[in-house]
């Protein structure tokens, strides 16, 4: 067998074994024959550090079938980035979305988190909450050996990664004989922090050992991190389209209209609010692994992984709310029709306090049996049971996520001004004649309490086998095959208190809050990374108040006696009654076969991988629905659906099957150059929320409005055909350059469509015999047969009961209901792009760099001038990464730069307008740096800086002038030490 | 490497999974809703003055002894001394002791009264005392405050604040139980003896007697509000009066009747009523005293003074007196309120004050008043002030029935009066007349014949008018008003001749009369010189010539006004005159073709008009533009809306509105004649220069009109008070369907009231169904929409028909009618049985309920901006009620 320049490290080899058959196994299988670690003769090339990580990553990329990128631990317990999402963004084509300034979800080649599958040691992991996407920020990087990102389809992978499949590979004790341990302590200094501790601890450790001559292995990794920080933000919830005839006629002196690019519409901000969130987060991760290897060819592994992230957030906010119409007093429109200045009367200005503690708990227990039966057969069985639970009710005393809105409507007008600066300004002309409200004028608006836990469970059994061809003299090397069953269940509900205290300011409750409850703050230091932020803000103040006290006082005063039961103050999220619970299950059976062929074609060594995966999915969904009995005609223009008493539990089951072929060719063009071609299909299943069954009928089905709506348990997955072409030049030990072209064409986008349906037993008085009789009689009498006339005819002819209610007869025709349901559209959308990467080390100087860029283009782009609803490809953006490092003599330093161009986050805004404008994210570029110094063989001290350029996030709507948000987190630094035994 | 193994094992063990997860909690937020006791005073109350009485004697730097035997102005039975036997500090307590006086003393008891005037004077704050009260019939301890500088005049004009008083504690009350009440009171208003006060009594819920133990008594005093507390419980709130204003900013009454002040206005020197923070907006000092006897204690409980109770002395024991300032805002004392639910409710702690209620404002609509024209006006009886006679109705040869006044020996004045004290006719009611709208043009007129001159024949005759119970008046020589029949007035009326008199209101106003509430008209010989006079009066009226003289313009009425021809702007057509039904006769017909256009009437010369723009300035107060229109066929475009546009001065200003924004609030219905009315004031408010109106247009929205054919008639500008035009037709809120911009409404029950078809007579009606959730239901105007019924005040009613299909399960409630003005700024709620019909609902029957606007107005409704009407069973008792409502209207009776 041809062994190229592949350099085997101890880590790489052991990894190959541990991964079993599910992932990297095939390419290493041959090497097992020549060098297995168990033989104890492995040359230990313990290349650690940045360079080691790069070499291992590069080797993995090179040796894989299809397009695979990887990030490898620098050494035990040290990953290049502490956050897994942030680590992944170093990979070509991967961009991340941040939450609280920390990467949490990945977008690959323009396909967002829901389109990517995250697996842990080859196991499909449940999404966070009532979603499919996995929040990577809840998992620490200690204990992770390798992150593997597979961009091309592979038959043996669990399906779901339309964009990519990320496999997180953790440390295994038997991978390395004997005891291994590393322990680190860090202090995190988050410059943004105001309320919590300025320096918060992180401790992490990895320990593994083998016993009884490597028959038993035990490994444990843990990490505990605390982080306190502050997020500052300015937000607009949406831009409202105002067509010209909706604009009030104003004195010309109050209007500046610079519209030239658009002339038929203007856009106004629904609100403007500013917020400061003080966040305390605590994250604990642990993994325990036992391994048992009674004989060389059999390994049993049991592992248990647990993580818990608790995030407590206290937010204060202030801002204005706008409605539109004749209350617009003055405005200035720019060339695109965006109001850059508006003076608007009515509504209110407010001060808000919100609080919640959200806990995300994830547990996974798994067992893996791996048996090399003989030289020809390898079998593996893997089973795991995992769940992920998100619960926002961990505030002690509240049990929900609460929001208190105080404020006042005692104002003349509110002025929005974005003619200067990079965040808009607003001020209120209060009735007190100033731009500043007095504490004594602050009133109760309303509070709301939401409890919305979600849980996602996955149970998965995978059986894999490999047959190595020694029987036939053909280039077939091996055949992989397998069966898997994946049962996924998601459930969640949303309990909402309603608007407690009665929305609005009538009656007024200003007197129930002592003035001393309000603390006046000035805005210096707030959003000061922006030119119009900080002390430059107008009017430059905001009030904060004590969350607990505001509740206590409103509870004591705004009682049912004072405002009535309907408005009484309460913190009960169930005040409006028990919410309905959403449940969705998905059961998928799959089988696959995958073959590998090796042969030489001319001078070229060619490897072909071809496979097929077949899946059958069943989606049982139970829903509690109101069952219609009949539709009565109760007045000329009133039709009422009469429902059966109580709710009926209905089961809906959707089913579909899918065939996923794949085909990879890899050619070693020269010793250093690899060329690849891949074609395959990948899928991502439909969003959970749309899969719920149950048909909801209109309660007032007037003629022309007989409507019903439903989810669709039979929604097909999004299906992508992927084409990849890649050239890679491995010109040095840790250096390579690569260029890749890709094209993804995605089918089965989801649209909501209407369909006319009839249901047995639901008869229609309309156009029934009596109806027709009435029409004929009326027309014969020369009367116009309006519904009123027909109804009167019914009443006069005794077709209605004493209350004027007409009920349907059996001989009436069936009602035709316009039922809307999400369905798969036949439109395909295509993304294509080019990926460039280079990684270079300058010989023995210790210097090196890595750079990559991805340029992506989609065929459906967003047109900001188009006022119709659009359906572009979202998330598409160019991205680039650059990294320089120096590593020599125990000192290493690294600076990384990650850049992402602006992109469409999605269609629609929080306060949507009928035109469904986009939400777009502005260009983002972050610089991180780190320095490591090895004090001695065991002890390393390090300093890391994240976002040292204090990059901020900005979003906008149709145009950049349609500001949506700006966020500021500040840099954070970590000083730490790691001790390796 | 192995040497580290054991250490690592230990570390690992210590950091087991459990341990790790056990450290959670640092990031968890924790809400404590008990963090504050909302019923306790806030920390912003900062102590600024106190006496803890921990010394050995009374602190002369804080307290002054009042030494007198004046009896406190209440005929009290004690002399106040500075003797140590009457007041001393002992054991951390101030003792004020009432003792029997020595034989021969000026008063039978001695006691003490201490004040802090000029030593401790305070404006706003929390004032607190912990004390144990004395007991016994005749005991009257008090902790109170008086004004330091008496800025507003003598007692009680500058106010008095009684923080706590008690009388006769433990003496038997009317039921024989020991008295245990305390009182918090304010004194204010007019000079004694017309002084006013308001206050609240309180006793502890457990019946504990304040004379048995120490309790805390406090007030919190801030600008415009004072609250009383005993042991931290707020038992009374008093506030300044709030003058209620209508949407035009005119005072119409009091939205809260609280305290007031009456004092001489600086500058004018007039004694004026002030509904504001005065007199409780100045510095007050503290007083602590224990009176014995006096008017109050001696007249209640066991009456008199129980000498036994005082034989060994009675003591007011004070642990401390503390004064706090609201640090949030010492200037107003606001921002530190210790309040509880109900503290601001008249049904709970809020005390109604004694402020006079300002008279309703002028409606601005001039109406002529006939006081007497041969038939007695029950609201304006003829009146003899002081002579004891009753003016007689007699038959006069010339004038028919007239009133004859005869003056005897007793001095008197005579005339006509509209004050309740003098109205005897059961149908009559005091109706002060608002002549202010015609103050410039109107006059008081009457005819007078002297049947017999007074014995003192040369005495002068006077004419006098009063308003508002005599608060203003004008008195003029009678001859000043002489208008005939002779050319020149004689010095006295000519005996046996009917003479006419007319006094212009402007002259009377000049002479000091407030013309907005005229309630007496008098004619008489000079006081005490009239004996023997007999005179008759007839045709007594307050009026202006020809009612109002408002400009008017008829643009189309059975034919076009040649100065204002029919006009098609841009469509090239010529509108025609067409015969319509009998009622309308010749009408103006407009037909819109394919070319976008607008149509209407113009007076612009360039368009063929007579160049006679209309000046509607004089119509801005109540004037209208009104027309009738029938849409013969609607535009082809179903989305088209009908618009009204009016321009002035060659389109220098213009107003365009949907027709549905007319007073009637209705959009056109094909085939039906409908009336559309726009108020000139409204058009002016929307920017129209009403002084040069030159085009009016009625049309479907531009370029959506094709196919429209419509007819207009009776297009005119006018004032409803001129001539015979009926006032604006009122508002039909629900009849088959809700009016434009009004909807059927369930406040809080979450239901959607429906339109149902009832019997033939009612057709489609509104049906309301009340479920378990307490709610009220009715009709609600859209945001910012309301109806101004001011023009209908005197004649208008709110009327509706209602049928209860199912009575509520809980029968304890009443059926109520409630009407509100915009923003719930004012509201009136009445039982349905208070309607003119006077009946309560009967299940299954359609019944009509009528409420006069005047009644609603008098009860406090701002009728200029009505936006909600509700019909419902008492809150919380409505479950199960199903009822239907139809023909809801605000209309002229």
UniProtKB/TrEMBL annotation, chain A:
UniProt keyword annotation of DNA repair present: no
GO CC annotation terms, alphabetical: cell outer membrane
UniProt-listed Gene3D superfamilies: TonB-dependent receptor, beta-barrel domain, TonB-dependent receptor, plug domain
Highest taxon listed in the record's lineage: Bacteria
Key words, A-Z: Cell outer membrane, Membrane, Receptor, Signal, TonB box
UniProt-listed InterPro entries: Beta-barrel_TonB (IPR000531), Beta-barrel_TonB_sf (IPR036942), Plug_dom (IPR012910), Plug_dom_sf (IPR037066), TonB_rcpt_bac (IPR010104)
PANTHER family named in the record: PLUG DOMAIN-CONTAINING PROTEIN, TONB-DEPENDENT RECEPTOR-LIKE BETA-BARREL DOMAIN-CONTAINING PROTEIN
The protein's name in its UniProt record: TonB-dependent receptor
Lineage, highest ranks first: Bacteria, Pseudomonadati, Pseudomonadota, Gammaproteobacteria, Alteromonadales
Automatic annotation (TrEMBL), chain B:
Keyword Hydrolase: yes
One biological process term in Gene Ontology: carbohydrate metabolic process
All residue ranges annotated as the GH16 domain in the record: 35-329
Keywords: Hydrolase
Pfam family, one: Glyco_hydro_16
GO MF annotation, one: hydrolase activity, hydrolyzing O-glycosyl compounds
Origin: domain of life: Bacteria
The family this protein is said to belong to: Belongs to the glycosyl hydrolase 16 family.
Protein name: Family 16 glycosylhydrolase
């Amino acid at each position: 067998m041809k062994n190229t320049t592949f350099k085997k490290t101890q880590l790489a080899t052991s990894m190959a074994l541990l991964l079993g058959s599910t992932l990297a196994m095939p390419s290493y299988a041959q090497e097992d024959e020549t060098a297995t670690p168990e033989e104890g003769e492995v040359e230990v090339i313990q290349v650690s550090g940045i360079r080691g990580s790069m070499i291992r990553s590069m080797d993995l990329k090179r040796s894989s079938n299809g397009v695979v990128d990887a990030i490898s631990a620098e050494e035990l317990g040290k990953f290049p980035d502490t956050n897994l999402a942030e680590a992944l963004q170093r990979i070509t084509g991967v961009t991340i979305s941040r939450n609280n300034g920390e990467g949490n979800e990945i977008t690959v080649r323009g396909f967002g988190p829901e389109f990517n599958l995250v697996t842990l040691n080859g196991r499909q992991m449940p999404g966070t909450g009532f979603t499919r996407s996995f929040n990577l920020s809840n998992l620490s990087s200690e204990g992770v050996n390798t992150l593997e990102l597979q961009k091309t389809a592979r038959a043996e992978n669990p399906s779901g990664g339309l964009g990519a499949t990320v496999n997180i590979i953790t440390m295994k004790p038997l991978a390395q004989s004997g005891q291994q341990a590393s322990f680190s302590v860090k202090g995190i200094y988050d410059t943004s922090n105001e309320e919590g501790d300025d320096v918060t601890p992180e401790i992490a450790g990895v320990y593994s050992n083998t016993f009884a001559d490597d028959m038993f292995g035990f490994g444990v990794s843990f990490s505990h991190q605390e982080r306190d920080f502050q997020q500052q933000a300015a937000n607009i919830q949406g831009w409202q389209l105002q067509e010209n005839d909706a604009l009030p006629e104003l004195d010309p002196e109050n209007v500046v209209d610079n519209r030239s690019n658009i002339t038929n519409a203007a856009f106004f901000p629904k609100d403007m609010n500013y917020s400061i969130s003080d966040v305390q987060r605590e994250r604990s991760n642990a993994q325990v692994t036992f391994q048992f290897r009674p004989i060389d060819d059999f390994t049993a592994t049991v592992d248990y992984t647990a993580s818990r992230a608790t995030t407590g957030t206290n937010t204060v906010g202030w801002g204005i709310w706008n409605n539109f119409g004749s209350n617009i007093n003055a405005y200035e429109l720019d060339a695109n029709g965006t109001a850059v200045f508006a003076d608007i009367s009515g509504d209110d200005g407010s001060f808000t306090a919100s609080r919640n503690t959200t806990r995300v708990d994830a547990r996974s227990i798994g067992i893996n049996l791996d048996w090399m039966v003989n030289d020809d057969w390898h079998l593996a069985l893997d089973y795991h049971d995992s769940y992920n639970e998100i619960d926002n009710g961990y505030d002690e005393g509240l049990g929900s996520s609460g929001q208190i809105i105080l404020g006042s409507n005692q104002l003349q007008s509110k002025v929005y001004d974005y003619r200067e600066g990079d965040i808009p300004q607003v001020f209120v002309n209060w009735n007190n004649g100033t731009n500043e409200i007095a504490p004594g004028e602050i009133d109760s608006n309303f509070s709301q309490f939401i409890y919305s836990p979600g849980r996602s469970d996955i149970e998965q059994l995978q059986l894999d086998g490999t047959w190595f061809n020694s029987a036939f003299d053909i280039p077939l090397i091996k055949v992989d095959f397998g069966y898997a069953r994946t049962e996924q269940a998601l459930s969640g509900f949303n309990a909402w208190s309603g608007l407690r205290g009665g929305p609005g300011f009538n009656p007024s409750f200003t007197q129930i809050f002592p003035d001393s409850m309000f603390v006046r703050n000035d805005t210096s230091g707030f959003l000061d990374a922006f030119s119009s932020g900080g002390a430059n803000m107008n009017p430059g103040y905001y009030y904060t108040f004590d969350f607990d006290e505001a509740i206590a006082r409103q509870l004591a005063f705004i009682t049912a006696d004072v405002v009535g039961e309907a408005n009484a103050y309460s913190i009960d999220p169930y005040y409006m009654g028990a919410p309905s619970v959403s449940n969705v299950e998905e059961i998928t059976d799959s089988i696959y076969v995958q073959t590998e062929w090796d042969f030489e074609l001319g001078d070229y060594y060619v490897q072909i991988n071809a496979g097929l995966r077949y899946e059958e999915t069943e989606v049982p969904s139970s829903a509690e629905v109101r069952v219609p009995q009949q539709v009565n005609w109760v007045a000329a223009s009133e039709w009422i659906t009469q429902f059966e008493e109580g709710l009926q539990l209905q089961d809906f089951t959707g089913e579909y099957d899918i065939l996923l072929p794949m085909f990879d060719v890899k050619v070693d063009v020269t010793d250093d150059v690899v060329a690849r071609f891949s074609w395959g299909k990948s899928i991502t299943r439909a969003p959970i929320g749309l899969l719920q069954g149950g048909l909801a009928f209109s309660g007032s089905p007037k003629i022309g409005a007989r409507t019903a709506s439903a989810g669709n348990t039979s929604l097909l997955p999004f299906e992508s055909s992927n084409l990849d072409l890649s050239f890679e030049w491995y010109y040095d030990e840790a250096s390579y350059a690569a260029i890749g072209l890709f094209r993804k064409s995605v089918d089965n986008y989801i649209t909501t469509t209407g369909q006319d349906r009839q249901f047995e037993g639901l008869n229609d008085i309309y156009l029934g015999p009596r109806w027709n009789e009435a029409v004929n009689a009326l027309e014969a009498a020369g009367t116009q047969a309006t519904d009123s006339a027909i109804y009167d005819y019914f009443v006069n002819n005794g077709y209605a009961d004493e209350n004027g209610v007409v009920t349907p007869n059996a001989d009436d025709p069936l009602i035709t209901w316009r039922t809307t349901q999400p369905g798969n559209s036949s439109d395909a959308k295509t993304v294509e792009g080019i990926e460039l990467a280079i990684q270079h080390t300058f010989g023995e100087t210790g210097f090196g760099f890595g750079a990559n860029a991805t340029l992506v283009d989609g065929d459906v782009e967003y047109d900001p001038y188009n006022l119709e609803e659009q359906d572009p490809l979202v998330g598409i953006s160019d991205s680039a990464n650059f990294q320089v490092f120096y590593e020599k003599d125990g000192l290493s330093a690294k600076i990384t730069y990650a850049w992402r161009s602006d992109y469409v986050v999605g269609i629609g805004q929080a306060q949507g307008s009928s035109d469904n404008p986009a939400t777009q994210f502005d260009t983002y570029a972050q610089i991180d740096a780190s320095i490591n110094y090895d004090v001695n063989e065991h002890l390393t001290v390090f300093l890391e800086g994240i976002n040292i350029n204090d990059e901020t996030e900005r979003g906008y709507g149709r145009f950049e002038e349609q500001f949506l948000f700006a966020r500021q987190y500040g840099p954070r630094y970590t000083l730490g030490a790691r001790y390796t035994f | 490497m192995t040497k580290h193994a054991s250490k690592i094992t230990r570390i690992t063990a210590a950091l087991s999974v459990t341990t790790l997860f056990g450290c959670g909690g640092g990031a968890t937020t924790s809400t404590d809703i008990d963090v504050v006791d909302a019923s306790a005073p806030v920390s912003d109350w900062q102590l600024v003055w106190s006496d803890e009485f921990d010394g050995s004697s009374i602190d002369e730097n804080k307290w002054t002894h009042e030494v007198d035997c004046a009896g406190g102005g209440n005929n009290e039975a004690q002399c106040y001394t500075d003797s140590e036997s009457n007041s001393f500090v002992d054991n951390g307590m101030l003792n004020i002791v009432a003792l029997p006086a020595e034989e021969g003393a000026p008063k039978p008891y001695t006691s003490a009264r201490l004040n802090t005037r000029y030593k401790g004077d305070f404006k706003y704050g929390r004032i607190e005392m912990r004390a144990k009260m004395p007991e016994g019939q005749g005991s009257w301890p008090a902790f109170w405050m008086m004004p330091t500088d008496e800025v507003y005049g003598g007692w009680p004009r500058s106010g008095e604040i009684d923080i706590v008083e008690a009388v006769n504690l433990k003496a038997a009350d009317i039921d024989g139980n020991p008295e245990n009440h305390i009182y918090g009171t304010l004194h204010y208003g007019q000079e004694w003896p017309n002084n006013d006060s308001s206050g609240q009594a309180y006793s502890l819920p457990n019946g504990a007697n304040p004379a048995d133990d120490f309790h805390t008594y406090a007030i919190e005093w801030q600008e415009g509000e004072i609250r009383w507390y005993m042991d931290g419980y707020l038992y009374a709130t008093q506030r300044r009066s709030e003058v209620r204003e209508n949407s035009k900013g005119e005072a119409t009454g009091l939205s809260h009747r609280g305290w007031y002040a009456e004092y001489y206005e600086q500058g004018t020197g007039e004694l004026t009523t002030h509904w504001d923070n005065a007199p409780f907006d100045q510095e007050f000092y503290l007083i602590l005293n224990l009176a014995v006897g006096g008017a109050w204690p001696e007249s209640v409980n066991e009456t008199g003074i129980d000498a036994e109770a005082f034989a060994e002395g009675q003591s007011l024991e004070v642990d401390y007196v503390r004064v706090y300032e609201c640090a949030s805002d010492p200037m107003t004392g606001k921002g530190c309120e210790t309040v509880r639910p109900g503290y601001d409710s008249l049904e709970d702690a809020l005390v109604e004050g004694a402020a006079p209620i300002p008279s309703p404002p002028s409606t601005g609509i001039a109406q002529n008043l006939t006081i007497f024209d041969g038939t007695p006006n029950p609201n304006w009886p003829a009146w003899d002030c002081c002579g004891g006679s009753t003016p007689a109705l007699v038959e006069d040869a010339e004038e028919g029935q007239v009133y004859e006044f005869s003056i005897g020996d007793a001095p008197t004045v005579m005339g006509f009066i509209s004050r309740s004290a003098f109205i005897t006719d059961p149908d009559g009611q005091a109706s002060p007349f608002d002549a202010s709208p015609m103050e410039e043009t109107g006059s008081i007129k009457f005819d007078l014949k002297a049947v017999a001159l007074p014995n003192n024949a040369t005495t002068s005759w006077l004419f006098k008018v009063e308003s508002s119970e005599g608060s203003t008046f004008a008195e003029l020589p009678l001859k000043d008003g002489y208008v005939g029949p002779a050319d020149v007035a004689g010095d006295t009326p000519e005996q046996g001749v009917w003479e006419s008199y007319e006094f212009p209101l402007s002259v009377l106003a000049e002479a000091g009369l407030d013309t907005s509430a005229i309630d007496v008209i008098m004619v008489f010989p000079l006081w005490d010189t009239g004996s023997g006079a007999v005179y008759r009066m007839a045709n007594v009226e307050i009026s202006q010539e020809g009612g109002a003289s408002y400009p008017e313009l008829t643009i189309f009425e059975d034919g076009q006004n040649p100065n204002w021809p029919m006009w098609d702007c841009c469509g090239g057509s010529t509108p025609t005159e067409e015969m319509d039904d009998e009622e309308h006769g010749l009408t103006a017909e407009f037909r819109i073709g394919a070319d976008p256009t607008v149509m209407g009437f113009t007076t612009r010369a360039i368009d063929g008009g007579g160049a006679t723009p209309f000046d509607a300035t004089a119509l801005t107060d109540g004037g209208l533009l009104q027309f009738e229109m029938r849409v013969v066929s609607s535009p082809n475009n179903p989305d088209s809306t009908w618009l009204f546009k009016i321009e002035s001065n060659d389109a220098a200003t213009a107003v365009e509105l949907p027709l549905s924004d007319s007073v009637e609030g209705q959009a056109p219905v094909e085939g039906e004649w409908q009336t559309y009315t726009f108020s000139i004031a409204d058009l002016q408010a929307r920017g129209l220069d009403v002084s040069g109106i030159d085009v009016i247009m009625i049309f479907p929205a531009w370029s959506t009109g094709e196919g429209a054919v419509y007819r207009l008639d009776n297009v005119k500008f006018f004032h409803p008070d001129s001539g015979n035009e009926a006032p604006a037709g009122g508002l039909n809120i629900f009849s088959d369907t809700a009016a434009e911009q009004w909807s059927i409404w369930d406040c809080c029950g979450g239901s959607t009231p429906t339109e149902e078809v009832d019997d033939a007579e009612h057709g489609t009606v509104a049906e309301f169904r009340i479920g378990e959730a307490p709610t009220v239901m009715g009709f609600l105007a859209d945001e910012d929409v309301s109806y101004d019924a001011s023009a209908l005040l005197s004649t208008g009613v709110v009327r509706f028909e209602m049928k209860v299909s199912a009575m509520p399960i809980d029968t304890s409630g009443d059926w109520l009618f409630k009407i509100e003005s915009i923003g719930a700024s004012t509201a009136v709620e009445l039982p349905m049985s208070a309607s003119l019909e006077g009946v309560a609902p009967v299940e299954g029957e359609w019944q009509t309920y009528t409420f006069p606007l005047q009644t609603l107005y008098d009860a406090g409704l701002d009728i200029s901006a009505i936006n909600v009407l509700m019909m419902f069973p008492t809150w919380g008792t409505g479950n199960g009620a199903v009822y239907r409502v139809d023909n809801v209207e605000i209309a002229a009776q």
